[in-house]
Design brief:
Number of helices: 9
Structural class: alpha+beta
Strand content: 15-25%
Number of strands: 14
Helix content: 40-55%
Largest sheet: 6 strands, antiparallel
CATH topology of the domain at 175-283: Protein Transport Mog1p, Chain A
Radius of gyration: 49 Å
Order of helices and strands: EEEHHHHEEHEEEHEEHEHHEEE
Shape: elongated
Strand order of the largest sheet: 6-7-8-10-9-11
Distance between the termini: 141 Å
CATH architecture of the domain at 175-283: 3-Layer(aba) Sandwich
Length: 368
């Protein structure tokens, strides 16, 4: 009489391996944890039936050797991945202890002599160190190159703008120092205002009138607002701003001042210019035009009326001398640009001719 020992395959994986024995017309109802137990159960059932001893072939239960081999293969793969990760992170330096341990083990077992073993170990360690240093140097060099490129990009973009300011109106500031741009020409200031949404139209780049300025322009922020932009070679001081923003008219001058530049505008536009360019706002001083107002009338007859006062006669030439003057003390001539503070005012040219600051293709001094 023969029987079978088999392992069931349920839908849900059991918590432990079970075995069953079978005989013709009989199936073991027990869940045996081992194959020999299932065989013994079948033998008992055959003895009860009087069939004698039964030869039970092996079933399809799990083989411990196969399971162990699978676990060992998985563990080996995990260890290999960890070792590769350590080698990559340490640039191969983790291999040095492994090489030393292998050399000591081989020498102790007598597989190789002491001197040859140490020589081979030293050579392998030298190769590992050389490769690690080369890899480290390559990584640090690439990192330094990326950092240098990042730092050199702003400078590279600003260098062409500094050398070609007269050819490229859309050039950017050369260097940013302390949060305020450093401009090399008035064109750059106008371009920044245009990009900031405050276009400055009708700009003309003539010889600077303000003393010390390297670039100057007059442009229109609106149909009724004309602004003066000056760029200097060095830093701009508050004394320079106050000296060149004296208002003798009805409107006070407000200067938006940066590192080496200023923009003179009215109070309504000064804050908008500062929001785009940065810097600070300095209000110019106001002086009433007390002496120039009586100049149109013949003041010489009034000063010459009392004969015993020669001092009044000597004081008459200053009233007839040129005014207003430039920041360097020179007289204005007809056709030259006038400052914002002089708009609509009268003056006297260097030759004594009466002049008026009016808008004639730009605010200029025109003969009356």
């Amino acid at each position: 009489m023969s029987g079978t020992v088999w392992r069931p395959k349920p839908r849900r994986r059991p918590r432990r391996q079970v075995y069953h024995g079978t005989l013709p017309g009989w199936k073991c109802p027990h869940n045996h944890s081992r194959q020999d137990l299932a065989t013994a159960c079948a033998q008992r059932e055959a003895a009860r039936r009087g069939a004698g001893r039964v030869t039970v072939p092996a079933g399809d239960g799990p083989q411990p050797a196969e399971r162990r081999a699978r676990w060992l293969l998985g563990a080996a793969l995990v260890l290999v991945l960890l070792a590769l990760g350590l080698i990559f992170m340490t640039h191969g330096l983790i291999l040095i202890p492994a090489v030393i341990s292998a050399a000591v083990l081989v020498i102790r077992r007598g597989k190789i002599g002491k001197i040859p073993g140490l020589a081979v170990a030293a050579g392998l360690i030298a190769l590992i160190i050389t490769g690690s240093v080369a890899t480290w140097a390559g990584n640090s060099g690439s990192t330094a190159a990326i950092g240098a490129n990042m730092h050199s990009q702003p400078a590279a973009s600003s260098t062409p703008s500094a050398t070609a300011t007269h050819a490229s109106p859309s050039s950017t500031p050369s260097v940013s120092v302390g949060g305020t741009p450093w401009y090399s020409s008035a064109r750059q200031v106008v371009a920044t205002l245009n990009r900031g949404g405050l276009p400055c139209t009708g700009a003309r780049y003539d010889t600077p009138v303000v003393s010390g300025a390297t670039s100057e322009t007059l442009c229109n922020l609106s149909s009724s607002e004309r602004t003066l932009i000056d760029v200097f070679r060095g830093n701009v001081s508050k004394a320079m701003v106050l000296r060149n923003s004296v208002s003798i008219g009805t409107e006070q001058i407000f200067s938006v001042v940066g590192r080496n530049w200023w923009v003179q505008a009215s109070h309504a536009y000064a804050s908008r210019v500062r929001a785009i360019l940065g810097g600070r706002i300095i209000a110019g001083p106001r002086h009433q035009q007390a002496q120039p107002t009586p100049s149109p009338s013949p003041t010489v007859t009034h000063s010459a009326a009392p004969p015993p006062a020669p001092t009044t006669a000597s004081a008459a030439p200053p009233t007839a001398s040129c005014y207003p003057t430039t920041s360097s003390g020179h007289c204005y001539e007809p056709g030259e640009y006038c400052r914002i503070s002089d708009r609509g005012t009268y003056g006297v040219a260097g030759d004594g001719e009466k002049i008026l600051c009016e808008d004639n293709n730009g605010w200029r001094w025109e003969p009356v």
